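Structure representation.

___
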Amino acid sequence: MAAPSLKPVEENGTRRPLVSVVMPTYRRPHHIAETVHSILDQTCQDFELLVRDDSPDDETERVVTAILDPRIRYHRNPERLAMPGNLNSGIADARGRYIAVCHDHDLHDRTRLEKMVRLFGEHEDLAFVHTGISTIREDGTSLGVDHVGDFRRYTPGPEWLRFLLSSFSCPVAADAMVPRSIYERHGLYDPDYGFIADVEMWMRLSLAGGVGFVAEPLSKIREREADHEYLGVNWRVIDSLARIHRRYSPKGYSGVSRWWSGLGLDLRLERYIAIHYLICVKRKDKAGRAAGRQYIRQNGRVLSRTLARLR
Protein backbone atom coordinates (compact mmCIF):
# COMPACT_ATOMS: atom_id res chain seq x y z
CA MET A 1 0.00 0.00 0.00
CA ALA A 2 1.38 3.41 -0.96
CA ALA A 3 1.43 6.24 1.53
CA PRO A 4 -1.42 8.74 0.95
CA SER A 5 -0.45 11.90 -0.89
CA LEU A 6 -1.00 15.45 0.39
CA LYS A 7 -2.22 18.27 -1.83
CA PRO A 8 -0.75 21.76 -1.41
CA VAL A 9 -2.78 24.25 0.61
CA GLU A 10 -5.31 26.15 -1.47
CA GLU A 11 -4.49 29.81 -1.07
CA ASN A 12 -7.63 31.85 -0.38
CA GLY A 13 -6.09 35.12 0.67
CA THR A 14 -6.21 34.42 4.41
CA ARG A 15 -3.02 34.46 6.44
CA ARG A 16 -1.56 31.05 7.18
CA PRO A 17 -0.14 30.26 10.65
CA LEU A 18 3.54 29.47 11.05
CA VAL A 19 2.80 26.16 12.80
CA SER A 20 -0.08 23.71 12.75
CA VAL A 21 -0.26 21.50 15.83
CA VAL A 22 -2.18 18.32 15.02
CA MET A 23 -3.53 16.49 18.06
CA PRO A 24 -5.22 13.13 17.34
CA THR A 25 -7.28 11.96 20.31
CA TYR A 26 -9.18 8.86 21.33
CA ARG A 27 -11.05 8.50 24.62
CA ARG A 28 -8.81 10.69 26.78
CA PRO A 29 -11.09 13.48 28.05
CA HIS A 30 -9.40 13.18 31.46
CA HIS A 31 -6.01 14.25 30.05
CA ILE A 32 -6.63 16.33 26.97
CA ALA A 33 -7.44 19.66 28.65
CA GLU A 34 -4.04 19.74 30.37
CA THR A 35 -2.35 18.83 27.09
CA VAL A 36 -4.22 21.52 25.15
CA HIS A 37 -3.27 24.19 27.71
CA SER A 38 0.41 23.17 27.45
CA ILE A 39 0.16 24.04 23.74
CA LEU A 40 -1.81 27.25 24.18
CA ASP A 41 0.88 28.47 26.61
CA GLN A 42 3.71 28.20 24.06
CA THR A 43 6.17 31.07 23.65
CA CYS A 44 5.61 30.72 19.90
CA GLN A 45 2.05 31.97 19.55
CA ASP A 46 1.74 31.85 15.75
CA PHE A 47 -0.03 28.50 15.48
CA GLU A 48 -3.32 26.71 15.03
CA LEU A 49 -4.30 23.64 17.06
CA LEU A 50 -6.27 20.96 15.23
CA VAL A 51 -7.87 18.50 17.68
CA ARG A 52 -8.99 15.42 15.74
CA ASP A 53 -11.40 13.40 17.86
CA ASP A 54 -11.76 9.70 17.04
CA SER A 55 -13.87 8.94 20.13
CA PRO A 56 -17.30 7.30 19.89
CA ASP A 57 -18.82 9.55 22.57
CA ASP A 58 -18.99 13.30 23.16
CA GLU A 59 -16.97 13.58 26.40
CA THR A 60 -13.82 14.83 24.66
CA GLU A 61 -15.86 17.28 22.60
CA ARG A 62 -17.34 18.82 25.76
CA VAL A 63 -13.89 19.22 27.32
CA VAL A 64 -12.20 20.74 24.27
CA THR A 65 -15.00 23.08 23.17
CA ALA A 66 -15.17 24.47 26.71
CA ILE A 67 -11.67 25.89 26.18
CA LEU A 68 -12.42 29.18 24.47
CA ASP A 69 -9.48 29.97 22.23
CA PRO A 70 -9.80 30.91 18.54
CA ARG A 71 -6.65 28.98 17.65
CA ILE A 72 -8.37 25.65 18.44
CA ARG A 73 -10.00 23.87 15.51
CA TYR A 74 -11.98 20.91 16.85
CA HIS A 75 -13.21 18.13 14.57
CA ARG A 76 -14.93 14.87 15.50
CA ASN A 77 -14.78 12.05 12.98
CA PRO A 78 -18.19 10.61 12.00
CA GLU A 79 -16.58 7.14 12.13
CA ARG A 80 -13.36 5.95 13.67
CA LEU A 81 -10.28 6.41 11.47
CA ALA A 82 -7.75 4.92 13.94
CA MET A 83 -4.03 5.61 13.61
CA PRO A 84 -2.59 6.79 11.34
CA GLY A 85 -5.80 7.66 9.46
CA ASN A 86 -6.86 10.19 12.07
CA LEU A 87 -3.43 11.83 12.03
CA ASN A 88 -3.39 12.00 8.23
CA SER A 89 -6.83 13.61 8.23
CA GLY A 90 -5.58 16.34 10.56
CA ILE A 91 -2.45 17.01 8.51
CA ALA A 92 -4.58 17.30 5.37
CA ASP A 93 -6.57 20.13 7.02
CA ALA A 94 -3.51 21.87 8.47
CA ARG A 95 -2.50 25.20 6.94
CA GLY A 96 0.75 25.97 8.75
CA ARG A 97 4.22 26.08 7.22
CA TYR A 98 5.36 23.54 9.79
CA ILE A 99 3.32 20.68 11.24
CA ALA A 100 3.93 19.42 14.75
CA VAL A 101 2.21 16.32 16.11
CA CYS A 102 1.19 16.39 19.77
CA HIS A 103 -0.58 13.43 21.30
CA ASP A 104 -3.57 13.85 23.57
CA HIS A 105 -2.04 12.92 26.92
CA ASP A 106 1.50 14.35 26.74
CA LEU A 107 2.67 17.69 28.15
CA HIS A 108 4.95 20.15 26.43
CA ASP A 109 7.53 22.71 27.54
CA ARG A 110 6.52 26.30 26.73
CA THR A 111 9.51 26.73 24.40
CA ARG A 112 9.01 23.54 22.38
CA LEU A 113 7.54 25.00 19.20
CA GLU A 114 9.84 28.02 19.27
CA LYS A 115 13.02 25.94 19.56
CA MET A 116 11.98 23.50 16.85
CA VAL A 117 11.11 26.27 14.40
CA ARG A 118 14.40 28.03 15.18
CA LEU A 119 16.34 24.94 14.13
CA PHE A 120 14.59 24.90 10.74
CA GLY A 121 15.88 28.46 10.27
CA GLU A 122 19.46 27.25 10.75
CA HIS A 123 19.37 24.53 8.07
CA GLU A 124 17.39 24.83 4.86
CA ASP A 125 17.36 21.13 3.99
CA LEU A 126 15.90 19.72 7.21
CA ALA A 127 13.20 17.08 6.62
CA PHE A 128 12.16 16.96 10.28
CA VAL A 129 13.13 18.08 13.76
CA HIS A 130 12.72 16.08 16.98
CA THR A 131 13.61 16.72 20.61
CA GLY A 132 14.54 14.94 23.77
CA ILE A 133 11.74 13.76 26.05
CA SER A 134 11.05 12.94 29.66
CA THR A 135 8.57 10.34 30.89
CA ILE A 136 5.69 10.62 33.34
CA ARG A 137 3.36 8.10 34.87
CA GLU A 138 -0.24 7.84 33.83
CA ASP A 139 -1.14 9.97 36.89
CA GLY A 140 1.27 12.72 35.76
CA THR A 141 4.06 12.16 38.29
CA SER A 142 7.60 12.03 36.98
CA LEU A 143 9.41 8.76 36.36
CA GLY A 144 12.65 10.67 36.83
CA VAL A 145 14.03 9.62 33.45
CA ASP A 146 15.04 11.93 30.61
CA HIS A 147 15.71 10.55 27.14
CA VAL A 148 18.07 13.00 25.46
CA GLY A 149 20.24 11.21 22.95
CA ASP A 150 23.82 12.18 22.21
CA PHE A 151 22.83 13.37 18.74
CA ARG A 152 24.19 16.33 16.80
CA ARG A 153 21.99 19.34 16.17
CA TYR A 154 22.15 18.47 12.47
CA THR A 155 22.69 15.01 10.98
CA PRO A 156 22.72 14.24 7.23
CA GLY A 157 19.72 12.12 6.32
CA PRO A 158 21.57 9.01 4.99
CA GLU A 159 23.65 8.87 8.17
CA TRP A 160 20.51 9.12 10.29
CA LEU A 161 18.83 6.36 8.29
CA ARG A 162 21.72 3.99 8.95
CA PHE A 163 21.49 4.86 12.64
CA LEU A 164 17.77 4.05 12.69
CA LEU A 165 18.45 0.75 10.94
CA SER A 166 20.96 -0.23 13.63
CA SER A 167 18.27 -0.79 16.28
CA PHE A 168 14.62 -1.77 16.63
CA SER A 169 14.16 0.96 19.23
CA CYS A 170 13.34 4.22 17.46
CA PRO A 171 14.77 7.31 19.25
CA VAL A 172 12.44 9.73 17.41
CA ALA A 173 9.31 10.50 19.41
CA ALA A 174 6.12 10.50 17.35
CA ASP A 175 5.64 14.24 18.02
CA ALA A 176 8.33 15.56 15.67
CA MET A 177 7.90 18.65 13.48
CA VAL A 178 7.86 18.41 9.67
CA PRO A 179 7.49 21.16 7.03
CA ARG A 180 4.18 20.78 5.25
CA SER A 181 6.04 20.96 1.95
CA ILE A 182 7.93 17.78 2.91
CA TYR A 183 4.66 15.91 3.48
CA GLU A 184 3.43 17.26 0.13
CA ARG A 185 6.48 15.88 -1.67
CA HIS A 186 6.93 12.60 0.18
CA GLY A 187 3.47 11.59 1.37
CA LEU A 188 1.62 11.04 4.64
CA TYR A 189 1.77 8.18 7.14
CA ASP A 190 1.35 4.76 5.54
CA PRO A 191 -1.65 2.86 7.03
CA ASP A 192 0.07 -0.41 6.14
CA TYR A 193 2.32 0.07 9.20
CA GLY A 194 -0.49 0.85 11.61
CA PHE A 195 0.37 2.12 15.07
CA ILE A 196 4.10 2.52 14.28
CA ALA A 197 3.69 4.23 10.91
CA ASP A 198 5.80 7.07 12.32
CA VAL A 199 8.86 4.76 12.42
CA GLU A 200 8.52 4.22 8.67
CA MET A 201 8.00 7.97 8.20
CA TRP A 202 11.30 8.90 9.90
CA MET A 203 13.18 6.43 7.71
CA ARG A 204 11.44 7.72 4.58
CA LEU A 205 12.14 11.34 5.44
CA SER A 206 15.78 10.56 6.22
CA LEU A 207 16.09 10.04 2.47
CA ALA A 208 14.53 13.47 1.87
CA GLY A 209 16.87 15.73 3.84
CA GLY A 210 18.75 16.35 7.05
CA VAL A 211 17.51 15.61 10.56
CA GLY A 212 17.49 18.19 13.35
CA PHE A 213 17.59 17.49 17.07
CA VAL A 214 16.98 19.78 20.05
CA ALA A 215 18.91 18.22 22.92
CA GLU A 216 16.44 19.12 25.66
CA PRO A 217 13.51 17.14 27.13
CA LEU A 218 10.81 19.41 25.70
CA SER A 219 7.94 16.91 25.92
CA LYS A 220 6.70 14.84 28.85
CA ILE A 221 5.52 11.55 27.40
CA ARG A 222 2.86 9.87 29.52
CA GLU A 223 2.78 6.11 30.04
CA ARG A 224 -0.05 4.28 28.32
CA GLU A 225 -3.04 3.15 30.31
CA ALA A 226 -2.91 -0.34 31.81
CA ASP A 227 -5.59 -1.54 29.37
CA HIS A 228 -4.09 0.11 26.27
CA GLU A 229 -4.33 -2.21 23.25
CA TYR A 230 -0.67 -1.74 22.36
CA LEU A 231 0.79 -2.26 25.82
CA GLY A 232 3.06 -5.29 26.15
CA VAL A 233 4.07 -7.69 23.37
CA ASN A 234 2.09 -7.02 20.20
CA TRP A 235 2.88 -9.24 17.24
CA ARG A 236 1.27 -6.86 14.75
CA VAL A 237 3.74 -4.20 15.84
CA ILE A 238 6.65 -6.65 15.61
CA ASP A 239 5.57 -7.61 12.09
CA SER A 240 5.32 -3.94 11.05
CA LEU A 241 8.75 -3.23 12.52
CA ALA A 242 10.29 -6.15 10.64
CA ARG A 243 8.73 -5.03 7.34
CA ILE A 244 9.91 -1.44 7.84
CA HIS A 245 13.50 -2.52 8.43
CA ARG A 246 13.45 -4.93 5.49
CA ARG A 247 12.12 -2.14 3.27
CA TYR A 248 14.74 0.46 4.18
CA SER A 249 17.84 -1.65 4.81
CA PRO A 250 18.62 -1.82 1.05
CA LYS A 251 18.14 1.97 0.82
CA GLY A 252 20.62 2.69 3.60
CA TYR A 253 23.54 0.70 2.23
CA SER A 254 25.18 -0.19 -1.08
CA GLY A 255 27.55 -2.81 -2.46
CA VAL A 256 28.93 -5.37 -0.02
CA SER A 257 27.58 -3.32 2.88
CA ARG A 258 24.05 -3.91 1.61
CA TRP A 259 24.52 -7.68 1.64
CA TRP A 260 26.18 -7.61 5.04
CA SER A 261 23.48 -5.38 6.55
CA GLY A 262 20.77 -7.70 5.20
CA LEU A 263 22.41 -10.69 6.86
CA GLY A 264 22.78 -8.79 10.12
CA LEU A 265 19.14 -7.73 9.97
CA ASP A 266 18.00 -11.35 9.60
CA LEU A 267 19.98 -12.36 12.68
CA ARG A 268 18.81 -9.42 14.77
CA LEU A 269 15.18 -9.99 13.79
CA GLU A 270 15.39 -13.65 14.76
CA ARG A 271 16.83 -12.71 18.15
CA TYR A 272 14.18 -9.98 18.60
CA ILE A 273 11.33 -12.38 17.80
CA ALA A 274 12.72 -15.07 20.13
CA ILE A 275 13.13 -12.63 23.02
CA HIS A 276 9.55 -11.38 22.69
CA TYR A 277 8.18 -14.91 22.55
CA LEU A 278 10.07 -15.71 25.77
CA ILE A 279 8.57 -12.57 27.35
CA CYS A 280 5.11 -13.98 26.60
CA VAL A 281 6.17 -17.29 28.20
CA LYS A 282 7.53 -15.58 31.31
CA ARG A 283 4.38 -13.51 31.73
CA LYS A 284 2.19 -16.58 31.15
CA ASP A 285 0.47 -14.66 28.38
CA LYS A 286 -1.45 -17.42 26.61
CA ALA A 287 -2.91 -15.13 23.94
CA GLY A 288 0.51 -13.62 23.27
CA ARG A 289 2.11 -17.06 22.98
CA ALA A 290 -0.58 -18.26 20.58
CA ALA A 291 -0.18 -15.16 18.39
CA GLY A 292 3.59 -15.52 18.61
CA ARG A 293 3.54 -19.16 17.51
CA GLN A 294 1.39 -18.25 14.52
CA TYR A 295 3.73 -15.41 13.58
CA ILE A 296 6.83 -17.56 14.02
CA ARG A 297 5.41 -20.34 11.83
CA GLN A 298 5.20 -17.82 9.00
CA ASN A 299 8.27 -15.67 9.67
CA GLY A 300 10.60 -17.33 12.16
CA ARG A 301 13.89 -19.15 11.68
CA VAL A 302 15.48 -22.08 13.51
CA LEU A 303 15.86 -20.45 16.95
CA SER A 304 12.40 -18.95 17.25
CA ARG A 305 10.70 -22.04 15.77
CA THR A 306 12.47 -24.22 18.30
CA LEU A 307 11.34 -22.01 21.16
CA ALA A 308 7.79 -21.89 19.83
CA ARG A 309 7.56 -25.68 20.04
CA LEU A 310 8.29 -25.62 23.76
CA ARG A 311 5.26 -25.84 26.02
Remarks:
- The longest helix spans residues 255-282.
- The first strand starts at residue 19 and ends at 25.
- Residues 235-308 form one domain.
- The CA atoms of residues 65 and 274 lie 47 Å apart.
